[in-house]
Write a structure and sequence with these properties.
247 residues, alpha/beta, 13 strands
């Protein structure tokens, strides 16, 4: 929660004996009718024993969850990676029992160029957040990725916006169709407590930039009563931002 006082947020967010909070991975499917996109991939199923002890993850359910809403992993045409921190890019590669393979073999993975560069050659500030060889080496070899530079329209409905702030190449996803507007805010809006623009995580490399983009997103959604999708909240998956929204 960054600088947000624990004395306030712990009233509504349960903490375990190691002072950890439980978090979810809410990934978003966008089906345009002609192409199917997935935003982020979660932790995946190749994390180390040390990481399992630290994060105590649930079972790997991504493929089963896709099937429950009618998609196979082969149906995904594009994977939009908001950033390449290990908990969002971990599912790019999976072990299905016969060795490592791309989780979504037919998908092009869309990544900001500056994020790719930071993940591949991190400095001391960033090195603990990335695992390039382990999580992205196979993707690089396959060539099934596209580096974008700044804001870009993937389709008439989907726009990637380079926000920075959370990481050097962090991007948000703007979705507009049939007069409706929505945003997937990723890790600048991970939890309901982060709906306040001033509340940013301790991971932020540029808190001021995150604050400005949060303000921009909320201000754009408000007149359209648009949904904002949250990345990590256990209970709240999306919030409608309307004229009565307090921030």
């Amino acid at each position: 929660m960054g600088i947000f006082p624990r004395a306030i947020w712990e009233r509504t967010v349960p903490i375990d004996e190691k002072h950890r909070i439980q978090m979810d991975f809410s990934l978003l499917i966008i089906d345009t009718g002609s192409r199917v996109f997935l935003i982020d991939t979660g932790l995946g199923n190749r994390i180390s024993e040390k990481e399992k002890k630290i994060y105590r993850p649930s079972e790997f359910t991504l493929i089963d969850n896709l099937a429950r809403v009618g998609y196979r992993r082969e149906d995904i045409d594009g994977v939009i990676l908001t950033h390449l921190h290990f908990d969002h890019a971990g599912g790019v590669v999976s072990d299905f029992g016969n060795g490592d393979e791309l989780t979504f073999p037919n998908a092009i993975h869309y990544i900001q160029e500056i994020e790719w560069s930071t993940a591949k050659h991190p400095d001391e500030l960033n090195e603990s957040a990335y695992q390039f060889d382990h999580q992205l080496g196979l993707l690089e070899t396959s060539g099934k990725y596209q580096l974008v530079n700044g804001d870009v329209n993937l389709t008439p409905e989907i726009r990637l916006i380079l926000a920075g702030g959370h990481s050097n190449g962090f991007q948000v996803v703007r979705i507009e169709s049939e007069g409706e507007l929505a945003y997937y805010g990723g890790d600048i809006f991970p939890h309901k407590e982060h709906l306040r623009p001033s509340v940013t995580s301790a991971y932020e490399v540029d808190r001021t930039r995150s604050f400005r983009f949060k303000r921009m997103i909320l201000d754009e959604l408000r007149p359209k009563n648009g949904p904002l999708f949250l990345a990590h909240d256990m209970d709240v998956k999306s919030v409608r931002i309307d004229e009565k929204f307090p921030w």
